Amino acid sequence: MKCNNAVAYIHDYLDGELSREQVKELRSHLTECAACQGHLEALERTDALVRAMPAASAPAHMTESIMKSLPKSRRPAAWTSWVRRHPAASAAAMFLVVMLSSFVTMWNQDQELSIAGPDLEHVVVEGNKVIVPAGQTFSGDLTVSNGVAQVLGDVDGNLTVIDGSVNLASTAHIAGKVQTIDRAVDWMWYKVSSWFGKLAYGS
């Protein structure tokens, strides 16, 4: 134990606020440190002297002046009291705030074309355009971010376009849903749904 910790323990010890383990630690330190032992003895003498003084000998205004000189205790803000009373709700609210801020940040920063899907060898990329050529079949779900999805062939799954557009030829066939996400809130909902879907299926 360091001396600065021991001094704090000494004051709590005199106030009777230390646990048994803390008292044991303090006594162990005092046997090795003469300075802290002397500090404790001085405080004990002062405490005994104050207790021995008759109350009548103290000036009438002494109690009032001492009380005024003490720092005023600050009342905790209403929201901190609510947080202490509702820890689970507070944790859930904090989680939602962090998720929302991170999703919005990702939405603002992620402006490059990206493609996701299991069968990317059956697509052609030209600039910001992702093309499923005529006569080709893309197996699985295709996700295009920040670009144009032009489907001339078949998509054997869902087609999702984030912050972009979809061009479907008359020869195109989409087995699943076609979803276009243009707003950050929709994108966040899509991300949350995808995350919970992966969690549910263990992938």
From TrEMBL:
Domain Putative zinc-finger: 3-37
InterPro entries membership: Anti_sigma_zinc_sf, Znf_put
Pfam families from the UniProt entry: zf-HC2
Family the entry assigns: Belongs to the zinc-associated anti-sigma factor (ZAS) superfamily. Anti-sigma-W factor family.
Protein name: Anti-sigma-W factor RsiW
Organism: Cohnella kolymensis
